[in-house]
Amino acid sequence: MERLRSRRIHIQFDASETLAPQDERLRLKPSENVTEEQEPFMGVKVRRRASFRRDYKGDYLDVPSQPYLMKILEKQGDNQVVFADRVLKFTGSGKMRRRILLITDFAIYIVDPETGSLKRRIALAAVEKLCLSELNDNFFAIIIPSEYDCLMASTRKTEIVTMLVEVTKSTSEYELEVAFSNRFEYNTSSVLVKEVQFEEVEEGVKTRIVRK
């Protein structure tokens, strides 16, 4: 993972959560450029200077050449991949896990890259909204009221959010809500709620994840 030279993203957890030493300070490079037409939240978010002119690629993993990913999709009756990339997912205990994120016309897939196993499938129809901060971090939460929510981080967050909004709109009359706040809650399980807090500091963006 490349280190960001000028700005850093700091992640802090409450006292009940721990990270491995190498994960105590996560540095993520800025997301790449996007066009105004492609970004559904243009004008609302405080965005990086370099995030205005870029064409989306979508599939960064060349899914058709990955038999284990194709097998997962085919088993679910899916074949139209609009986005595929590696992301960081936060577990209920606060640990970070490397995962593969796949987005199709009908669902979100979270795959373990080490074992090649499907960890979770989320129907797009079950997603209520996406939560993001107003700062230039890489975090986003997928809110699923009928299940439990999902907090992830990606250097291509803007593209992920755009794809989810566009795909949901194209396959239904429902327009996915994108909510912005420097504090938002998400349910890590049916009984545990956490809050993600963002603060702009001199070095970049400071992020804390605390239990409610």
Automatic annotation (TrEMBL):
- Which PROSITE patterns has this protein been placed in? TH1
Q: Which organism is it from?
A: Nelumbo nucifera (Sacred lotus)
What GO terms are given for molecular function? cytoskeletal motor activity
Q: Which InterPro entries match?
A: Myosin_TH1 (IPR010926)
Q: Which GO terms describe its cellular component?
A: myosin complex
Which PANTHER family does the UniProt record give?
OS01G0621700 PROTEIN, TH1 DOMAIN-CONTAINING PROTEIN
What is the protein's given name? Answer: Myosin IB heavy chain
* Gene designation: LOC104601231
Q: Which stretches make up the TH1 domain? A: 45-212
